[in-house]
Design goal:
The structure is a single chain. The chain is an alpha/beta fold. The chain has a domain of 48 residues. Helices cover 40% and strands 14% of the residues. The protein is built from 18 helices and 13 strands. It has a 13-stranded parallel sheet. Helix 11 links the parallel strand 5 and strand 6. It is globular, with a radius of gyration of 28 Å.
Length: 464
């Protein structure tokens, strides 16, 4: 191994780039190995190191006189001269980690002039990265520091692949400049937006091959973002992954343009009782209508949280090409309707589905049979109830029908099953179900938030 040439060693070490423990052991073999491994470790791993080690390395690269002139006192353990230009190897920059470093430094210092000192130190660390790093691949921009306006930004960010922005913190000039620098983003995540920000629009509009976009709106929502809707529609051909948190802030007409979508995630969990007004209900209804008329033939993953739209989702599923692998539905609305439509649509159009969690009512149990018969790759099944059935007679074991269907028709691939606590089950039905599991590969079985499962298993002596 010691005689392998540099090219072979580089290939081996790059294969180990996700295994920092083994890479650390390689550092100590000899000088050649050390010089090959250090750039790989610093490409991504420094943010996962012990804070103290990372702090010392970063601070050893800062201009000492500037810190002295501004009375910024750093730990005495800082190295006088680093062995490598560590910063230049970094491909990932997370400003929230820099903020954490600074909080640690100033935690025990007096508050006199602390804000200005913290701001200066943060600025210098950011400038250090931007000067030294030639091709940052991923940037998490969660600071008010105008990173794109610092010297060297055009080189540092020209090959940016992934960008995450806290839009509340960044001024328009910095956003416009970033739009001029990076035009090849694949992944864009926007947090805390609340209005049509021209700088944000310019960044999205500048991208040539935007594949994934995630939009997390501010809890205190602002005006409806009509320009954002338009620019998303322009990028519809390239976007394959889309995440939206709160459906009330963007007109939903852009959905029909996402014709190559593979992963769709909708969260509406910002909406609470205070938001339950006529305007909000109208916006949600409009969003659901656009879901119904949209076509995502290549869809593979569908996650919807906080919307009651089983009919619209079933219409969406019916227009896919059988590529769906995962569907997860969560709703707050106990009066939702048409739950059976989604189960039937999945059974008919999703032969390759592996994970499903949704809601059904007892009248829908019969459709679970066709689901199990047609979806033979199903590995996880979660079936929740919309309504508590406390009014049932204590001897009305309404859940036995579901257990019997699972007993008779579950595919061998099904290893994880969760069913609702609201459907009462008899010991005999559990006995039949668990006996059938000896022939299958069931690994996990649970009843949501229910204590009866332990009693049932004990009474039926299934483990004896």
């Amino acid at each position: 191994m010691m005689n392998l040439n540099v090219d072979c060693l580089s290939l081996i070490f790059n294969e180990l780039q996700t295994d920092k423990n083994h890479l650390h052991s390689c550092l100590l073999v000899n000088r050649k190995w050390c010089h090959l491994v250090v750039p790989i470790l610093w490409k991504k791993h420094p943010w996962y190191e012990e804070n103290k080690k990372l702090f010392n390395t970063l601070f050893s690269c800062l201009p000492k006189q500037l810190l002295i002139d501004n009375d910024i006192r750093l730990p005495s353990t800082i190295l006088s001269k680093p062995s490598f230009n560590y910063i230049s190897f970094c491909k990932y920059l997370k400003t929230e980690n820099i903020s954490e470093i600074i909080r640690t430094i100033f935690a025990e210092q007096s508050s006199v002039g602390k804000y200005n000192k913290r701001n200066l130190l943060e600025q210098e660390i950011c400038k250090l990265f931007i000067r030294q790093c030639k091709n940052i691949r991923e940037l998490s921009w969660q600071t008010s520091q105008p990173l794109s306006l610092f010297q060297g930004a055009s080189t540092c960010f020209s090959q940016l692949h992934s960008l995450s922005i806290n839009i509340d913190l960044i001024n328009s000039d910095a956003l416009y400049k970033m739009a001029q620098i990076c035009k090849n983003l694949n992944i864009l995540t926007i947090r805390y937006f609340s209005y049509d920000n021209p700088g944000l629009i310019s960044i999205i509009n500048a991208q040539k091959n935007l594949k994934s976009i995630s939009l997390y709106c501010s809890v205190k929502r602002g005006s409806v973002c009509k320009e954002l809707n338009k620019v998303l529609a322009k990028k519809g051909n390239t976007i394959s992954i889309f995440t939206l948190r709160s459906v009330n802030i963007i007109p939903p007409s852009f959905l029909t343009s996402l014709i190559n979508l593979k992963i769709l995630t909708i969260f509406n969990d910002y909406d609470n009782e205070e938001d339950d007004n006529e305007d909000t209900r109208d916006k949600i209804k409009e969003f659901q209508q656009y879901l119904a008329i949209s076509e995502f033939p290549e869809l593979q993953i569908l996650r919807v949280n906080g919307l009651s739209c089983f009919k619209e989702l079933s219409m969406l599923v019916e227009k896919t090409k059988g590529n769906i692998l995962r569907i997860n539905i969560y709703t707050y609305n106990q009066y939702s309707e048409n739950t059976e439509m989604l189960i039937k649509a999945i059974a008919s159009n999703c032969p390759n589905i592996e994970q499903l969690s949704t809601y059904i009512e007892p009248k829908d149990f019969i459709y679970v049979q066709s689901l199990l018969l047609n979806c033979r790759n199903l590995m996880y099944l979660g079936l929740n109830s919309l309504n508590s059935l406390d009014f049932l007679d204590e001897n009305d074991y309404i859940g036995d029908e579901l257990l019997d269907i699972l007993t008779k028709f579950s595919p061998k691939s099904l290893t994880d099953v969760i069913i609702s606590k609201d459907w009462k089950y008899s010991v005999d039905a559990f006995g039949r179900f668990f006996k059938s599991c000896t022939k299958n590969n069931l690994f996990n079985f649970g009843i949501n938030n229910n204590d009866y499962i332990t009693e049932v298993i004990r009474e039926s002596k299934l483990y004896t």
